[in-house]
Amino acid sequence: MSRLPAAALGLLMLGPASSGPQDLSAALRDLMGIPYAEDAGLDAEGRFVRFTPPGASLPAPGLNCSGFAVAAARRLLGFQGSLAEAGRDRLGDSGAGSPGGQDWDFGWDLVLNLSEGRQRRWVLPEGDRPAPGASGRALQGFRVQDREAWTRLSGRWRKDRVYFATLHRGSGRGLRHHHVALLLRSDAGLGFYQTLPGGRVHRLALDTPEGMDRLRAMFGPGERILILEIQI
Q1: What is the pTM of this model?
Q2: Can the peptide bond before residue 132 be classed as cis, meaning omega within 30 degrees of 0?
């Protein structure tokens, strides 16, 4: 069974307040470049396994977007739960036979499960909102293509916060939270971390025109993003 080195499983610890916030992105270095693998995550023991069936081993390291989010939460937030606990259906509204389709709000469930017990809020151009909110349809975030929205948020990001994002498209019963990502602010700027089919875990520099253009090119005009700020 493929496993991450034990030394890489240690949590990132913040130093004294007087020393200033550490570079949180350092906790993700061992994850960068891991290939995308469908339905793949990292369990609490550092093993690369499938979400379903639970614990099924992978022959080589691999993560999907949800698996990357769980691995990042283990390092940044101290999440110690199983992959099943990470994907728990919080409101019982996205199981088999759900009017919106099974797992329609998986990304919304995931980012809230990973940050359970932490102080958190939704970051929106028009003003922050308390989390978790009523459901995965309660807030729609903003369009990924909306340059003005990103500009309004440009001074909002903090180095001592973790930002999980759930990307969704559609509307009404057709809405689906289908992708999750992570944002971190560091001395290097604002990084957008994700993995996509056919690729690897990577970082986009969102405070550069090139990085923002790449993000917009990856997601169509109907794509919206909802960002959750979490205290560590």
Answers
A1: 0.91
A2: yes
Cα→Cα distances 149→16, 131, 214, Å: 34, 20, 17
Neighbours of 84 (CB within 10 A): 11
Give residue 78's domain range. 6-231
Q: Name the strand (E) or helix (H) holding 98.
A: none
Strand partners, 143: 224
Helices (H), the chain: 65-76, 83-86, 106-114, 147-152, 209-218
Domain membership flag for residue 24: yes
Mind listing the pLDDT tens digit for each residue in 114-123? 999 999 999 9
Overall number of domains in the chain: 1
Tokens describing residue 21: 């916030």
Residues 11 and 188: their CA atoms lie apart, in Å, by 21
- Cα torsion 135, 140, 141, 145: sign: positive
Residue 1 lies inside a defined structural domain of this protein: no
CA triplet 64, 65, 67: central angle to 5 degrees?
65
- Per-residue confidence band for 1, with pLDDT thresholds at 50, 70 and 90: low
